[in-house]
Amino acid sequence: MPEQDGGAAPAPPEYLGKEEAQSLVARWLAPGFALAAADPRADAPHDPDTPPGAIPRRAREFAAGRRAARAAARQAGLVLDRLPMGEDRAPLWPAGVTGTISHSDRLCLAIVGPASAGAIGLDLEPETPLDPLLWDTILNPSERAALPRDEPGRAAMVVFAAKEAAYKAQYPRTRRLFGFHDLEVTLMPATFRATFTSAHPPFVPGDAIAGHWGRAGGHVIALAAVPL
């Protein structure tokens, strides 16, 4: 079951309503992984791994992600004391631990599990249409052609979230930065497939990452997994 972070100030009512989002993600978790949530708006103790010079809003979001990650680690039976950010801005998970963190301006979710369970990526976006000005940057021509006539912007946001989740899931394997067009997402009713369109060793064109997506608690949520 998802776990709320402990020790923080009482959450606003609109945050408590996001249990729907936690319940959705919990159904997708593979054995060994655990999920926890935190409120990125809450005043809480400063996290020692917060990047120097972070503005207050960013510091709260960072601390919320680390609170959620530590709560998820405890639930998974793992030890997670510190979680600094690397030069690539990705969390530096300790040996034997893997995880993923994502937040909107209202909710932060973290998933943590043993590294032997593989790599995962979570993305959490507001349930709003993707700005058409961003479509050419994010969508491949085939993805754009597949958008439904009815509310294409909402579908485009799902593609965006799926790409973000797949990118996070593959990053521990490749340690490479690449663009949105290097993955091509095919959406199914509750799942997706993100296929590499270019080589990023050990992945070659045609390799695919599987994932889940859904809408809950005012968010579009996507989770991708890369097995060992």
Topology summary:
Elements: E1 3-4, H1 13-16, H2 19-28, E2 34-38, H3 56-75, E3 97-103, E4 108-114, E5 119-126, H4 135-138, H5 141-145, H6 152-174, E6 183-187, E7 191-196, E8 208-216, E9 219-226
Parallel strand pairs: 1-2
Antiparallel strand pairs: 2-4, 3-4, 5-9, 6-7, 7-8, 8-9
Report what the structure shows.
By secondary structure, the protein is α+β, with helices and mostly antiparallel strands. It folds into two domains: 115 residues, Ribosomal Protein L22, Chain A (Alpha-Beta Complex); 82 residues, no CATH class. It is built from six helices and nine strands. Strands 5-9-8-7-6 form a five-stranded antiparallel sheet. It has a four-stranded mixed sheet with strand order 1-2-4-3, sandwiched between helices. It starts with a strand and ends with a strand. The N terminus is likely disordered.
Radius of gyration: 17 Å
Tally the helices: what do you get?
A: 6
Going by CATH, the architecture of the largest domain would be Alpha-Beta Complex
User: Please, what is the average pLDDT?
Assistant: 90
| Spatial strand order of the main sheet | 5-9-8-7-6
- Structural class of the secondary elements? alpha+beta
The major β-sheet equals: 5 strands, antiparallel
Unreliable spans are 1-17
Helix content, binned percent: 25-40%
Shape: globular
Instruction: Estimate nothing, just give the exact number of structural domains.
Output: 2
Query: Roughly how many Å apart are the termini?
Result: 25 Å
Give the beta-strand count: 9
Which keywords apply here?
single chain, 228 residues, alpha+beta, Ribosomal Protein L22, Chain A, 2 domains, 5-stranded antiparallel sheet
